[in-house]
Amino acid sequence: MTLLDAEVGKTYEIKRIDTEDEEMNSFLFHLGAYAGEPITLMSKKRKSCIVVIKNARYGIDSLIAESIII
Asked: Across the strands, what pairs with 53?
């Protein structure tokens, strides 16, 4: 299941990041989004999501959210 399929307000564990783009992998790693870390979906719109990773809120687009497998 991807982050786009997640329920708003729930916390999930990141299983893996499913992308071939090394720049995106690096970006997500610097945010703290890597396998085993909890992620909470705060809100979801058509083209973006607000997530909480390590007590910080981030706005991510749907392309990035689609690559986060929970």
From this structure: 56
